[in-house]
Prior knowledge:
Layout: E1 8-11, H1 15-22, H2 33-42, E2 46-49, H3 52-56, E3 61-64, H4 79-91, E4 99-103, H5 111-118, E5 126-130, H6 140-145, E6 151-154, H7 157-165, E7 175-177, H8 179-210, H9 214-221
Parallel strand pairs: 1-2, 3-4, 4-5, 6-7
Antiparallel strand pairs: 5-6
Helix pairs in contact: 8-9
Amino acid sequence: MAQQGHRVIGVDRDEGKVNHIREKKAPFYEPGLAPIVENTVAAGRLTATTVLEEALANADVAMVCVGTPSDKNGNLSLEQLHRVAEQIAAFLPQRNSPLTVAIRSTVWPGTCEDLYERFFHRSPLVRIVSNPEFLREGSAVKDFLEPSLLVVGGTGESAVKQVASLYAGLPVEACLVALRTSETIKYACNAFHALKVAFANEIGSLCERIDVPASEVMATLCEDHKLNVSAAY
């Protein structure tokens, strides 16, 4: 985001990560990330803090990117998301201008509506948007700069367009949808990607048994863009 020209203030409870940013260093390894951090910090477009209020004071958009790990029963844990929402809500009385809260985390449909009701109490100062993340570990920078999909969902057109405009200049057309639709699209993508992995593994196992080159089978299957790699069926 900072490389795209936006002023970004990162917030994290981990002081070590924050200090890395302040020292123009990436807080973790990701191919291509280090020079972006170095250049954007030097240009004054990227900073970091452990104090949420500092980041929210003049922010137009708060992008929430916390983890939603699986609980023992398989449900997503929203503990981190709820904690951040509560912290943002506590700061709202100090603001006079609206704040768009964009949820990047993977959440089940209806979560954003629940956050708006439960923590923000339908405050006119908050506009909540679903902007799911489609970044893969190990190729996150490339995935951001060359996105395969950009989805922004919400109930207010101005907030949805505001978040979509953050990605202006990237080679992708934003899909502007309803709030629950956006949350569901993320789940559908995750499920389909897992399905493709499982299917490829099954074909691989079969090919190994019958002495057929699995990579050639799958590469050829993917050559069919009308039926196989498409919206057909």
